[in-house]
Amino acid sequence: MLDTAGELYEYKKENDYRLLFFKKYKASLCVLCIKLLIHRNVIFREVSKLDMKFNNRDPVYVQVIRYFKEQIAKGFFEPGQEIPSRRELASQLKINPNTAQRAYKEMEEQKLIFTKGNMPSCITRDEEILKGVREELIIETVDIFLSSIKSINMPLSEVLEIVKKKHDAESKGTEEPK
Amino acid sequence: MIEVKNVKKKYGKKQVLSGLSFTADKGEITCLIGINGVGKTTIMKAIMALIPINSGEILIDGEKIRKESFEKVTFIPDSLAMLPKMRIRDAIEFMADFYKNWNPKRAEELMQFFKLDTTDRIADLSKGNMAKVNLLLGLALDVDYLLMDEPFSGIDIFSREQIAEVFTSHLIEDRGVIITTHEINDIEHLIDKAVLIDNGAVIKEFRVEEVREQEGKSVIDIMREVYLG
What we know:
The structure holds two protein chains of two kinds. By secondary structure, chain A is an all-alpha fold. In chain A, 67% of the residues lie in helices and 2% in strands. In chain A, β1 and β2 form a beta hairpin. Chain A is flat. The two termini of chain A are 44 Å apart. Helix content of chain B is 31%, strand content 26%.
């Protein structure tokens, strides 16, 4: 609260000053904001490091490809998004650079990523392939589910009922991912 | 490429290497695996011509080791070979005086990466930090081949992770590395090739990704088969 007239005057003066400042430096402020955004984006890119655990029996490069597919299906990697260089990927995932190279080569052959000349590699924009990735992962998960539910010998309708209930309960608790 | 061909070595009456052969390519990490006393360190010393061999041949890029080869290949022993009285910066200076291909920029980078202090005296360093200094002195040389003897032994988990990180960085890239270990877990995902050794000879040499792909086996699975099966 402002008590005295003197304080009020000071307050007004200060605010006017701010307004004046804003008017005068509007353009440069805008530039600054944009710069800040770019800067933050860069930081964001560095913070959002890839993280995955490997098992010892599957080839590492296969595990890397699977991880990329999961990230694409999840929407973490968007169509056309730039991905880390081979060297960056190796140090982020703590794998051999030769393995990172192999994974990228394989993904290029599967047309999951593309590289133009000396530019960094990017995630494909091909809708068909992206859809395929999603389907592939879903089918794989369903297969695992089916093979583990098989031993319980439960009618499918009952299983689906439970799945639906569980799913509804969970999606109420958490927001649907975009 | 480093080629070790049918190398035999005796210490007195004891046959340490009995016709050992393997190759290690440039740009790849080759891991010599075996329990204590199978001759891992002896091979490293033989490659560096620190000990004479009784028979066989060792070639580096098709040549026998000469004085000039020591600018091309370096050995990081399992303990630091610097005077305890020295400070880290003295050790660095010593290396810079001794080797033409000492890379001061990379040494600086490694100092920061390992968070070491140049004024620390070597005698006062913890075991883990001593291992890091040891690695630093080897890695800061612009050599094509690096031989590392047990870089992980007796080192805490976080320092181990830090050392393992070196292998995935540009510090190692494009160089040929031969590393010995009996703790494969730390670097299973990092190596290109494993060479299993027993009784002074190679019992199996394989590319780890190939074995995972074709047989679905981990390095430890293979070791179990070879050593216990």
